[in-house]
Amino acid sequence: MVYNVEDRESGEMFKEARLTTEEAQRWIKFHENVYKEDQEMANKVLTGSPRWSVIMAYYAMHNVSKLYLAKVHNIKISGQDVHAQTLFFISKYVKQESKRIIPLLKQAKEEFDAITSSSIWVIPQLLSKGRDERTK
How many Cα atoms within 13 Å fall on the side-chain side of residue 31? Predict the structure, then answer.
């Protein structure tokens, strides 16, 4: 299924292509491997060629973004202007997800602040409680 989505800032139209059941598994596996490979290569050349490391890291970010769009939203990014499409759809879906994620981040920060501002003896108690929860 394909939907037209207009990027109001640039006036461009992008087609939101859905992955078919047959291609979803291959697409996801491919992008899982490619982003990891790009990330490994970026780390390997970091000291010897920082410019190429940045380029490889960009491609890792690009491929992990396409992986996210495929896994979570069943979207396939391909064809012309893949980088612009990826940025457009990541922006679109992150804005939608932020309504769910931001309250969780605020809650996590409050809990972190409560832990770090309290006496040091609280941390062993929390670790013990966590262990008990995991071993139920």
Answer: 21
DSSP 124: H
| DSSP assigned state of 7 | E
Provide the token pair at 10: 């640039």
pTM above 0.85, yes or no: no
Measured between alpha carbons, how far is 47 from 17 in angstroms, rounded to an integer? 39
Per-residue pLDDT tens for 72-127? 999 999 888 888 888 888 888 888 877 777 787 678 777 766 656 665 555 566 66
Q: Give me the helices (H) in the chain, please.
A: 21-44, 50-73, 82-117, 122-134
- Give exposure, 77-89, as e/b (b: 16+ Cβ within 10 Å): beeeeeeebbebb
The packing angle between helices 21-44 and 50-73, to 10°, is: 160
